[in-house]
Amino acid sequence: MANGATTNPLDPEEFRRQGHMVIDFIADYYKNIEKYPVLSQVEPGYLKKRLPTSAPFYPESIETILGDVQEHIVPGITHWQSPNYFAYFPSSGSIAGFLGEMLATGFNVVGFNWMSSPAATELESIVMDWLGQMLRLPKSFLFSGNGGGVLQGTTCEAILCTLVAARDRTLRIIGNENIGKLVVYCSDQTHCAFKKAAQIAGIHPDNFKVIPTTLSSSFSMSPKALRNTITADVEAGLVPIFLLATVGTTSTTAVDPLGPLCDVAKDYGMWVHVDAAYAGSICICPEFRHFIDGVEGANSFSFNAHKWFFTTLDCCCLWVKDPTALTQSLSTDPEYLKNKATESKQVVDYKDWQLALSRRFRSLKLWLVLRSYGVEKLRGFLRSHVKMAKLFQGFVEADERFEVVVPRNFATLCFRISPSALTTNNNAILSEINGSRRISDTSPKKMVTENELNNKLMDSINRSGRVYMTHSVVGGIFLLRFAVGASLTEESHVIEAWNVVKQQADIILNSHHSEF
Amino acid sequence: MANGATTNPLDPEEFRRQGHMVIDFIADYYKNIEKYPVLSQVEPGYLKKRLPTSAPFYPESIETILGDVQEHIVPGITHWQSPNYFAYFPSSGSIAGFLGEMLATGFNVVGFNWMSSPAATELESIVMDWLGQMLRLPKSFLFSGNGGGVLQGTTCEAILCTLVAARDRTLRIIGNENIGKLVVYCSDQTHCAFKKAAQIAGIHPDNFKVIPTTLSSSFSMSPKALRNTITADVEAGLVPIFLLATVGTTSTTAVDPLGPLCDVAKDYGMWVHVDAAYAGSICICPEFRHFIDGVEGANSFSFNAHKWFFTTLDCCCLWVKDPTALTQSLSTDPEYLKNKATESKQVVDYKDWQLALSRRFRSLKLWLVLRSYGVEKLRGFLRSHVKMAKLFQGFVEADERFEVVVPRNFATLCFRISPSALTTNNNAILSEINGSRRISDTSPKKMVTENELNNKLMDSINRSGRVYMTHSVVGGIFLLRFAVGASLTEESHVIEAWNVVKQQADIILNSHHSEF
């Protein structure tokens, strides 16, 4: 025993006793989850008022601690696992994902290289090939085709790793002193992770080029606009190195045309990374696979299994065609990690495929998800979410006060109170908000007002605690995002969510109306 | 239900049933852990031969899967939780750490900003202040003193974040076009994570300056040598921005003199980060606190709670004096994340303190560790590990064939078969290995031979499967590292480990000897 008379901190029987208690705690949490407001209703600083100002000197019992979790932590949680959660993108938990995380935590190995735990490395390579096959990725992305997959924590890391690989590939040719000439490209819909990655990688801020998109093209990136920008940059003596294309943008789940974009990039020898963080999952369904057509022209592809693939946070799946490009930038070889397996070159050392040295045994949870549900059930789960999003879409389309802002691609619907509804039926509302301004005014100022109304709708929906959804603004339009994907969500929850939207819209519209 | 007739992937009762099974599986694993060879004995590619080449189409039962974990995964695991694990640095698990991870996985919130789950942010800030107090960090590192703490995944991330903050702080003054002039400093004992971070951050490879260390100063960094290097760089027109100082290096747990190093750095306006990844933990014991004396002159400080603080991987604790420097480099503000709490500036949004956007609820496990054990027991656990390392040191010192290579600071002992033992008692061995070379030869070639013998000793120890320890090479000396810290380790395991070392040394030395 580590500390004389005290219990060992990893005593198996005490582990068993407390472990069972926490399993029951979490099972009860799921059972009762609908009792809590989806969006936490606490005020900033709430927890400081409830907890001591310093750590306890003497041990406290698990019973006391779990009591405090229930009393003080649960009220401060926004319940991403709630069936009434439709915000951001899902963080879809599952039993299999949870159990895989438990096993990884139980083994608690630090799998930086093959030798430090061979199973951690080998299972990851195997599972990434499995998943690559399920997505019908070109063989060149799989280990079986001299590419390979790796589990990163997040898409942010996947982007930074591939960007650094692309950067160094070019700098090895033109010299490190030319880092200021490197240019990277994306659209105005690309996730903010890319701008941050470029900043971290030392790309000059002026050389972060953003291609504008429009509502008329559903906010997808224009290959022509990309080519024009690149041409001008090359003429100015700059060196294009990297394009980030997105399948399923965060604001509206827009899809960039991979084939034509890769064709442009190819002409300039650029690295193309495809960020399918959200939408990648559903491409395991044959009828959705076309959304990643053209991926064969890209250099790397990633999606988040922790978003909409039942694998708990964090688990981003990244495939690259040329692992050597990654390892040339990210390898380390200190004496204290040297070993015969590495020297034999028969093994993968994943520390050289990622930012950090240490890494968790993440492939276990992905393996458990794939095996527990199989391809068939996974497709079924995802299709059921799309079906529920369609159901919600039907409600929106049937109510003339509302409109769908952009066509739905997956299980996320972008909608709002329609401006036409406002001008035709609720002149009073706008005239009240606009004051002396005429209702037929189509100036940006009017749009701001429509946006304010939709913002108000969202706030009132979320304050109800009954559902949670979030927003974006694209092309100046404030829209509400209804993202289906929480594992516990059933059709009844979607119907109820629509009722909440309608009720809140009634209150907002009628209260204003009745004032006139 | 998500998929008609099938069970919901997060059904509470099925969760309960399977969760209890896995708790028992892991409890049994800990109970039986000594039955397995500590270092996995599998060959590269072992798992591919045992698993199917593609994911199953139909679901498989948890019983089948757990059977496969036992049969196919466990043999490929290097058992970091084994009481006979003394390799690298510990990955010290605990019941509390495990349960905290379970709760975080169960809630599965994505706490990128305050609003996305207020408890995740607030508990982290509170716990980081608690822990900062336990370490007697200057108040300027705590939220209560306008600094603040954040949980990163790994030290690699902590270093990269602080380096980028320091880089951009300077670039804002001298202009982005001068990135090629920036210089960073460390010693030849600094963890390889720093070189990788500098590479990722776009620091010119020529400007990564390594200060040599020597055995005579126990491999700690010389402030004088640092100043000389910086002076020369400044004269050459370069701009010093960052110093990485280490408390407890990976090879020998050497300690850089923080006070004098910070004094040098201060003269040049450099950022100093203190990497106490391993040794930071034990600085909660008053008698060890002096090892981080001088930290008040640094800009940031980090240690890994997942190494030697009973908190499962991953959990790196980072404190900074100037959070604004971090957030100026790492902030993002996309429309889809805008919210009133952020706009009120009353909250911390941790996404702006780290590389990635998404983040797990890591503070839960740290909170559970602090509360379950309290300051008293945590100190007791750590002191027991130091005591066991001392016990092992006694064995080494009492056996004239062995020597301690550098003075022990913490719970890691660096030792080897002594060269004097070889020359006085085992001339035959060396003459056999050296062939015609004279035994009194003190050339590098002789040292290589001594090193080969110690390498052979390590290999035979690890191949026995009874214990696992790793090596390093410092100042040309191959040494074995005996790192105590696995939670299940008791004195009996240390005694047994020494027996293994002795037995293997006997075999190696005698087999050679008997040939003559």
Automatic annotation (TrEMBL), chains A, B:
Fetch the InterPro entries from UniProt: Aromatic_deC (IPR010977), PyrdxlP-dep_de-COase (IPR002129), PyrdxlP-dep_Trfase (IPR015424), PyrdxlP-dep_Trfase_major (IPR015421), PyrdxlP-dep_Trfase_small (IPR015422), Pyridoxal-P_BS (IPR021115)
> GO annotations under biological process?
amino acid metabolic process; carboxylic acid metabolic process
One GO location term (cellular component): cytoplasm
- Modified sites of kind N6-(pyridoxal phosphate)lysine: K307
Which top-level group of life is the source organism from? Eukaryota
Q: Which UniProt keywords apply?
A: Decarboxylase, Lyase, Pyridoxal phosphate
A GO molecular-function descriptor = carboxy-lyase activity
Enumerate the cofactors the protein uses: pyridoxal 5'-phosphate
Q: Which SUPFAM superfamilies match?
A: PLP-dependent transferases
Q: Which family does it belong to?
A: Belongs to the group II decarboxylase family.
PANTHER family associated with the record: GROUP II PYRIDOXAL-5-PHOSPHATE DECARBOXYLASE (PTHR11999), TYROSINE DECARBOXYLASE (PTHR11999:SF96)
**UniProt name for this protein:** Tyrosine decarboxylase
